Amino acid sequence: MPYSTLLFDIDDTILDFQASEKRALEKLFMHLNRPLTSEIADYYRQLNATLWQRYEKGNVTRNQLLNSRFTLLFRHFGEDIDGASIEKQYRSFLAEGHDQIPGATQLLTDLSQHHDLYIVTNGIAKTQERRVQEAGIAKYFRQMFISERIGFQKPKQAFFDFVSQKIDHFSKQNTLVIGDSLTSDILGANTYGLDSVWFNPAHLHNSTPAEPTFEIDSLTTLKTIVN
């Protein structure tokens, strides 16, 4: 039976978050009149990924994550700063980024004709809403489900409970989760009993307990799966 309901993660699945993050960091450090070295950029990405994984597990709150990441970054390099104020400026720059994964718009155009598309994201609500709008892809989605608004994050069952209750005639058998994160998208789908697609263009090794139903390295491959 074809999948009629498609739940898309947004960052590094539809929109190129890596490109947006890189540009936002560059703008932030220019704004701060500081050099952004590769060492600083690499450490920030590692630190940020760790904090988001802790958020997924419920070990830190969203506000704790956002208000601490730049404090921790600068502290690592021997400087105490007000990370919360820098965070606001960074998020403003991040919201400006809406580069797309190759083939995303055409895929959404095609799929939205015969399938119901939704966004499921752990990202920051105002940032995600602006990026989706300015990327010109909001029209393809029936609704955006954002953890900040819901009060629960992927991969928690409560997140998917909320989503299922808001979608008319929701059916687990006809629903497919598409995302790049094993610990968020795929684990969440596993826990809730949904089929999933791991978007893995870099051909990363899966060293987690999460098991995707399908694995793809190109968005165009998704058309064959959903039908």
From TrEMBL:
Any one GO MF annotation of this record: 5'-nucleotidase activity
Entries under InterPro entries matching the protein: HAD-like_sf, HAD-SF_hydro_IA, HAD-SF_hydro_IA_YjjG/PynA, HAD_sf, PGP-like_dom2, Pyrimidine_5'-ntase_YjjG
Domain of life assignment: Bacteria
One Pfam family from the record: Hydrolase
Annotated coiled-coil segments of the chain: none
Species whose genome carries this gene: Lentilactobacillus hilgardii
UniProt protein name: Noncanonical pyrimidine nucleotidase, YjjG family
